[in-house]
Amino acid sequence: MQTTTAMSDALGRYLDLTSQQMQVTARNMANVDTPGFKTQGFDFEEVFAQQLNDGAGAAGLEGVLAPMQDVDGLVARPDGNNVSIDREGLQLAKAQMQFKLGTQLLKGEFATVMSAIHMDSK
C-alpha cells in the first residue's frame, strides 16, 4: 500500500531543501568573523526543479544535498571574508517562510488523504 502521494513527495523534497537552506545560512552566519571565509549557497529554485524532474521517489532522495557554490558579487572585507549578516538574515527569513508554507501545504495534503480514508470507512 502506497502511503505517499506525488504531492507529498514533492513537498518533502521542498522541505528538505528549505532545511538545507537554513543550515547553509546558519553556517554563513557562524563564520562572519572567520578570515577568508566565502559565503556559500545554492539556487533553490533550480535544484528543486531538478529534483522534481529526476523522477526519483522520496526514498531515493535521502542524503541528496544541493551542490554548494560560492556566492558571487558580494563585497569582501580586507580579511577576505564576504559574509553579510544583513543578506544572511534575509535568507534565513525567506527560508523560514518557505518552510512554513511547505508544512502548511503538507498538512493540507495529509488532511485530504485522511478525508479519503474516512470516506471509505463510511
Sum this structure up briefly.
Its main location: other. By secondary structure, the chain is mostly helical. It is built from 3 helices and 2 strands; from the N terminus they run H-E-H-E-H.
Task: Explain what this protein looks like in three dimensions.
This protein starts with 5 loop residues before the first helix and ends with a helix. It has one domain. The protein has a two-stranded antiparallel sheet. Helix 1 (6-30) runs antiparallel to helix 2. It is mainly alpha-helical. The chain is elongated and about 70 Å long. It has helices spanning 6-30, 44-53, 85-121, and strands at residues 40-41, 69-70. Helices cover 59% and strands 3% of the residues. The model has no long low-confidence stretch (mean pLDDT 89). It contains three helices and two strands, in the order H-E-H-E-H.
Order of helices and strands: HEHEH
Percent of residues in helices comes to: 55-70%
Largest sheet: 2 strands, antiparallel
How many angstroms does the end-to-end distance come to?
A: 20 Å
Largest sheet, order of strands side by side? Answer: 1-2
Going by helix content, strand content and strand pairing, the class is mainly alpha
Point out poorly predicted stretches.
Answer: none
Give the CA-based shape.
elongated
Task: Tell me the domain tally.
Answer: 1
